[in-house]
Amino acid sequence: MDVFLQQLVNGVAWGGIYVLLALGYTMVYGVLKLINFAHGEVFMAGAMTAYYVNAADPGLFRQAHPLTAMMVLFLASAAASALLALLIERIAYRPLRSAPRLSALITAIGMSILLQNLGQLVFGADPKVFPALIETRPLFSVGGAVVSNLQAVVIGSSLVLLAGLQLFVSRTRLGRAIRAVSFNPKAAALMGIDVDRVIAATFVIGAVLAAAAGILYGLFLPKIEPFMGVMPGLKAFVAAVLGGIGSLPGAALGGLIMGVSETLVTGYVSSNLRDAIAFVLLIFILIYRPGGILGNDAPEKV
Fold this sequence. Notes:
Layout: H1 2-32, H2 39-56, H3 58-63, H4 66-93, H5 101-123, E1 128-129, E2 138-142, E3 145-148, H6 149-171, H7 173-183, H8 185-190, H9 195-220, E4 223-224, H10 230-243, H11 248-268, H12 276-288
Antiparallel strand pairs: 1-4, 2-3
C-alpha cells in the first residue's frame, strides 16, 4: 500500500506539469478551434531560456534563495516563451485564420518541426543539465508516502497557476473578452472586442504556463534538449482531449489522470509502456466519450 501511495504522489507531481501544458492547448483551442502543435516547442524554449539565464551568472543564482532564483528564471522564461508564441501566432496562424482547419493544422505541425530543428541549430544537439535550484529532500509523509520539497513546489505551483488562470478568465475584463471570442468571434467583434488582441493574449497566457512547466520539468528531469517538447507536448494534448478540450477544469483533470496513469504503468507494468499509455487513453476516450470527461458530446449541426 505504501508503494502505491508513493506512486500516486509521484503521479500527481508529474500530472501538475501536464496540467500546465494542457491548459495552453485548451485555451488556444477554445478560442481558435486550433490544435497548436508548436506548444511543446514553446515549452522547450522556456526551459532553454532558464538554463542560459542561469548559465550567465551561476554563482549569483546559487547564492540567492531558491524561490527567488526560480522567480527570476520564470520571468525570463515567460518573456521569451511569450515572444515566441506571439511570433508563431502572427506569422503562422493569423494569415490562415479564415482558411480551412486542415490548413492550419498542417501549418501547426510544420511549425513544430521547424522550431525543433531551429532549436537544434541554436542550442546545439547535446543535452544540457538544468541547474539544481532546489536541493531535493523529504518534506513530510502521508500514509507512508514521502512528499519531497520539489514535489510540493511542483504541485503548489500548478495549483496556484490554475487558480489564477480560472480567476483571470472569470473575473477580469480580458478574461470575459476571451470567453466572448471563444463563444462567437463575429458577435464579439461587433460588440467592440479586438479579436486579434484577445487571440494574441490567449497565446501569451498559454506560453507563460508552458514556461512554468518547462522550469518544473527541468527541475524534475535535469536533462533538456531541443526535442524535449515533443513527447510531453503530445501527452499534454492527449490530457486536454481526455478531460475535454476547451475546458479548463477538464485540462486539469486530464493532466492529473495522465501523470498518475503514466507513473502507475511505469511502477507496476513496464517503463517501456510509459509513453504508450497516453495513446491508449486517447483511443479509449475517442471511442467511448469523444468530447472528453468534462467536455460536451452534443451533436454538431450540419
